[in-house]
Amino acid sequence: MRITRSSRPIVIACALMVASCAGEPVEAPAPLACDNAEFAAYDGLLIVAPHPDDEVLGFAGLASEFIRQGKPVRTVVTTDGDAYCEACALWTTGSVNGATCDAATLSNFATPAVDSLAEARRLESTLAARALGRPAPRFLGYPDTGLAAARRNRDAGSPDTPLRRSDFSACDNCGECGAGYGGGPETSLNANTLAASLDELLAATTPTTLIATTHWLDGHGDHAALGEFVRERAALVAGGRTVAFAVIHANTANGHSFADCWYPGPAAEPCPCFDEDRADNDDDWL
Length: 286
Hints:
The chain is an alpha/beta fold.
């Protein structure tokens, strides 16, 4: 796999975050200019997003530049973003504190009506693509939280373990629904099918296609897992592929529910990275 200088802004941002967490004053760096010409020199763009909305959060500007130049843009959304307890409660009851959703309300595809959160999220991404002048995404249909589970299963030597949808109906409120994530019906999908799906997508590209996905150090488990899967599979394609990565959930440790810190947003909430002891002693702390 070839990684272009597109990773440089991430390295610079990380260095600045480490400096800011040290508690010592630092001189403000000179403004950085984005060299979009380096990205847009490729003949096409394939966006592989973990959830509906990540294709816009991470790559809307990049896709717009490709479209402006008349170059093809394809978008693949890997999961349905259906394991979102508060969003489903809001969608069905008008309140994030409303009744929790069962598996069918989260992920039903048996009827043509948009009667599940997964279908609503697919529709949102489709309408967003239309508004941005992009073709509708292709949806692979993996369960939300399933990418992180696929990586865990693969690393444990069980890549054929079925991935599961979510079901929050056993909980009175979303705050106590931890077991509902990935605790619903089994699917026919697993780490092996994910690798095969990515291989199929990458095989349909050329060495002059830029692949865009989320970074393997992103704070969201699905984002990190997809970044790792994509960079591994891209390295196996004949001729290799260049991959550009976006960090969407920054400064959030995997497996923890801390608020994200959108560096360097001036209005960002106080950042949990200001914990020097943990930064020095906890290898999982980003």
